[in-house]
Structure prediction request, 630 residues.
Amino acid sequence: MTALSKEAAQREDFREILRIVRPGSRVLDVGCGEGALLELLGQDKGVDGRGLEISPGGVAACLARGLSVVQGDADHDLDDFPTGAFHYAVLSQTLQAVRAPRHVLDELLRIADRAIVSFPNFGHWRVRWSLFSRGRMPETRALPDPWWNTANIHLCTLRDFLDLAEDLDLQIEACSALTQGKPARSIDPEKGLENWRAEAAIFLLSRRTPALRPTLDLETSQTTASDLFNP
Amino acid sequence: MDANADPTREESSADTVGGGVYRLPAGTSLSLDSGARLEGLEIAYQTYGVLNADRSNAVLVCHALTGDQYAAGVHPASGKPGWWSRLIGPCLPVDPARHFIIASNVLGGCTGSSGPSSIDLSTGQPWGLTFPVITIADMVRAQALLLDHLGVGTLFCVIGGSMGGMQALQWAADYPERLFSAVIVASAARHSAQNIAFNEVGRQAIMADPDWRGGDYGARADRGDSQPDRRKGPEKGLAVARMAAHITYLSEAALQRKFGRELQRDGVSWGFDADFQVESYLRHQGSTFVDRFDANSYLYITRALDYFDLAQAHGGVLARAFTRAREVRFCVLSFTSDWLYPTAESRNIVRALNAAGCRAGFVEIESDKGHDAFLLDEPVMREALAGFIGAAATARGLK
Prediction:
C-alpha cells in the first residue's frame, strides 16, 4: 500500500483501537510510525505505551513526542520484548507486509495478553472483480500499488486469516469490518458474505489456552518478565 | 574551585561558564571497586549555564576515553571547540540557556582529576602505577560526589557517548533515584573480546616503549629531575596506541573515501616513509595525541573499559541492572557503520531495558563515519536528541 492509503486505512483502525483498548492498560504498537496512535492512547486512555518502528525518522518523531519507541521491525525484533509485558499488542495494516505472518502473530500473543490486528481483505468484492475482469493482480483503492511495487507480500482473505487463527489456537474476541469513509461495523467473520463485503478487517485476538507464563523471571531469560511496568 | 563555580548565583546567562577542581575534604576517601581507598580525590570540572531554583535542570555530560571536561565552548589549551560543541550550546539539544551542564574529567584522567599523573600526597611524587586500578563505577562514584558538592540532587539528564555512555548506564544502575533521563550514544554494556584485544595492543605499545620505565616516567624531585614534564614519557608507544585505536573509530568506507590509496608524493619511496596519505594521517593523529594525553592514564582508562561488564555485576543478567530505573527515560543511539560498539551492543542494552520495564527509545542512525560519528555533525542524531530531551524537559516541567 502507498503511504497515503495506509494512513487513511489506519485512521479507521485508530477509532476502533481507541474503542477496544481498556483505560490505563499497557500497549505495544508494532509499526507505530510517528506515534500518532500511541499519543492518542496516552491522552484519551491513559495508556502506558511503547512502540516498535522501522524508520529512523519515525522513531525520532516519536521521541520528540515523548514516546518510548525502539527502532526495529516486526519480523526480527519482537523477540526483544519480554513475555506478557503488555495487555495489548497492536499491528495495524502491517501483517500482510511482514515476512513471517504466522511467527509475528504468535509473537504478538507471547508479548501481550491480546493482539489487535488489522489487514486489507483480499476477498473483498473489488479485489475479486479486479482479478476476474482484468486477469491481472488487483489494484483497488485499498491495494493501489502494482504487484512489482507493493510492500504487501502476504495478502490474505478473511477466511485465510481465520484458518491461521484456528491453527494458532487463537480466540477471536471481536472483529470489525473497515471500509474507507464509513464507520466500522462489528461483524461475524465466519459469515461468508463478510468476506465479500469487508474492505479491511480488524481483529481482537487472545489465546484459547494461555501460554505458561513465568512471573518476574529475569534470572532464566533476559526477555522474560511480567507485570513490570507498575512495580 | 573558583568564584564562577557557584551554580546558584543570581546572574542568569547562557554564557555563564564555571568550573574548577573539587577536592574531597581531608579525612574522607573514595572507596573503589578494587577495594582500595583513594584519599585526596580531585575532580576537575566545567559548568555551562545556571542551576535553576528547583535544581531540576542539571545535565551531566560524560566523556569518552580521551575526552575531557571541556565538552562545550572553547578548549582553553587547543583553542578548538569543545568535543561535543555540536550538541551543547545555544539552540542545541543541550543548551546552557535552559540547562545547567556539568562535565568533569573522569577519575584516572589527565586533565585535572586524580589519576596516575597526579601527586600521591603520601609520597609527594606522581602516582604512576601505584595509582589504584579504577572502574567505570568508580568514575561514576566520583561524579556523584561532585554533584553533591554542586548541590545537584537529581540529574535532569545524564548523557554520554562511547565510554561516556557506559557511565550513563552505570548511573542508571547505581543511582537511578538521582536520574530523570539518560542518553547513551554509540556505547555498550560491556567490552567485547575484540574491544579488549584492541586495548591490549595499545597498552602493549606503551609498555614496550623504553621511555615508559615501568610507568615511572614522571619527573621526580628526589632524582633531581627538573619541572614535571610528562611529555618525556613513552611518546612513541602512546602514539602507536592512538594510531591503532583511531582505526577502530573510523569505518572502512570513511577511510577509503578520505584517503583511498592516495600517495603523499608522486610515486612511492621504495622505503618505509609515510608513502600513503592514510599513513601520514595516522602518524599525525598519533603525534598530536601525545601532546595532550598521559600514557599511564591511557593504561588505566582502557583497563576500566575492559573491566566494564554491567551484566556481570548483576548476576549475569543485564536487565537486573535496570530494575530500579523503571522511572528513568532512556534514549539509546547507535550508528550503522560503528564496528567498535556496533548496533548489536545497543540492541542488547535496549532489550535489557525492555525486559526490566524501563522507558526506552532507540534509533540506529545511518552513517558511514564509524564510531566517531557520535562526535561529528550528524543531523539525525542532533534532531533525535533535541526531540528526546525536549520531550523529557516538558515532562520534567522545565522551560
Remarks:
- The two ends of chain B are 29 Å apart (CA to CA).
- Residues 379-396 of chain B form the longest helix (18 residues).
